[in-house]
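Shape matters. As here.
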Amino acid sequence: MLSSYLAQVMEPRSLSEVGLGPNSFDVIAIKSRVHFRRGLHDKGYAPTILLVEPPEPFLGTVRLDGLRYRNLHLADYYPYGTPEFPPPA
């Protein structure tokens, strides 16, 4: 099912409400950046979660080193560089 509206699938009931029987499928793929674990993984419905990302970085990527930065140097931030942290108080 594709939607032109922003929606988050946070539990199997969301799929049932649109006419999909989640128990009828061996695999369910959800394109989501957040919230998919709540109600699916933490309650035992999804025993396995695979996180995938396309090879090219994009807005919202976790591969920050693949994005172009204008106002900061990525090497100043962990884990991409060796920033100096203040000593513990």
